[in-house]
Amino acid sequence: MGRSKLEKSLIDAVSANHEITEYELELVQKYGDLGRIWDDLSADIKATGVMIDVASGNNVYHKVNPAVTEKQRISSTMNGILRTLGIDSKGLSENSKTNKIGGGLSDRKRSRN
Predict the structure, then answer these.
(1) Percent of the chain's residues with pLDDT above 70
(2) Contact 54, 61 (CB under 8 A)
(3) What per-residue confidence (pLDDT) applies to 93?
(4) Which of 34, 39, 82, 102 is the most buried (most CB within 10 A)?
(5) Where is the region Disordered (predicted)?
(6) Tens digits of per-residue pLDDT, 44-66?
(7) Which residues, including other chains, have CB under 8 Å from residue 81's CB and lie 6 or more apart?
């Protein structure tokens, strides 16, 4: 499987400062994997809603979709990976507007909101 546009953008951003290490490549791959999970969770929330009904015995409870809290955890992990790579997501977003580095990152960030 080839690298996603997102992963290529991260590699470009890290490579702009120094030669990328195996460890950094692994972090980029994990970031891409988390991005795909994020997209799946977003699709679930869109399909089922932020609140879901859960049946327990004779009762039905209205509760927060677990995908919402999972997205929060994934977001924290993704931000941690960016920090470890020495990348500022705000800077990447600004740079992508001028076509320097970070191509798909600002698009992905906007689609999350």
Answers:
(1) 75
(2) yes
(3) 57
(4) 102
(5) 90-113
(6) 999 999 999 999 999 999 999 99
(7) 27, 30, 31, 34
**What is the DSSP-derived secondary structure letter of residue 18?**
S
Q: How far apart are CA 87 and CA 16, in angstroms?
A: 11
Domain that holds residue 76: 5-112
Q: For residue 100, what are its two tokens? A: 């320097």
pLDDT tier at 2, thresholds 50, 70, 90: low
Query: Which of 83, 61, 82, 95 is closest to 7 using CA atoms?
Result: 82
Q: Tokens 């600002």 belong to which residue?
A: 106
Give the chain's domain count. Answer: 1
Q: Give the DSSP letter string of 54-73.
A: EEETTEEEEEE-HHHHHHHH
What are the phi and psi torsion angles at 101 (to 5°)?
Answer: -145, 170
Both tokens of 81, joined, read 């990976």
